[in-house]
């Protein structure tokens, strides 16, 4: 039987490398040999460091041992007898964890187009990019929107690009870290500032005091919600992308009701499965769109990668994310051929 090298959080603050057996795929599964995975910084550090309240949503599913990761590019080695859309030799974007081998269903999988062969590390952003894409859709963008993106980690950088693809007139990127602001500008943000107060003044100047049509709050920090609402125009929308580990500390702004604001949340569990003509944008369909936008240069991820590690260096990878956050963005695991 084949053995898989897997990254595991055995308990809070304890990472292990485990060699575990892996069998043949079930009839509705494909067997993946991983080539590249991307660390989902917020989710995985929350799990490793147990950064969440006992009553939070994370506490309901972050159980130990915890297998981190969900943004995987791998080669299809075998397919179950019921599989018709994948074949051995295909490269696939899947939700497989940081595992060398894994059997997985195809409800969240997509075949990599030939244009992305050899660009696996760029495509490894697929799952995270689909989380952002789902959030953009939930906000119902319109041509000419004024957008503010609060928090310029991985999701924020992708939100900047998606907002532009969706037709935003201005995208104001907000983060205290200069390197992240520079990155957002390089990827198309029209403006970048370090604080919400600066952003409010800038938005007022850009819009004759109307402010932002849509604000994407992507920090996950509970104290950011109320001031971020202050960036919305009257009857504007704030989208919460991601789940705070400390929801009891989140509060509305004092004028939330008086200004008729709307809060929308978007989560990876909400897209339809499968997609239909009426509700089309399932995980596979969003994955296909992201991969097409990446292949044609309308979305870019290569410059978001700051670090690469072997799986055997996993502890060092997470240490970098914990200890050098300002200089760290996309962290890729390069799996053995």
What key attributes describe this structure?
337 residues, alpha/beta, Quinone Oxidoreductase, Chain A, domain 1, Rossmann fold, 2 domains, six-stranded parallel β-sheet, 10 helices, 28% strand, globular
Written account of the structure:
Strands 3, 4, 5, 6, 7, 14 and 15 form a seven-stranded mixed β-sheet that branches. The chain has a six-stranded parallel β-sheet with strand order 10-9-8-11-12-13, sandwiched between helices. The protein has a two-stranded antiparallel ribbon with strand order 1-2. Helix content is 27%, strand content 28%. The protein folds into two domains: 2-125 and 301-334, Medium-chain alcohol dehydrogenases, catalytic domain (Quinone Oxidoreductase, Chain A, domain 1, Alpha-Beta Complex); 131-266, 3-Layer(aba) Sandwich (Rossmann fold). It contains ten helices and 15 strands. With 337 residues, the chain is α/β, with parallel strands linked by helices. The model has no long low-confidence stretch (mean pLDDT 94).
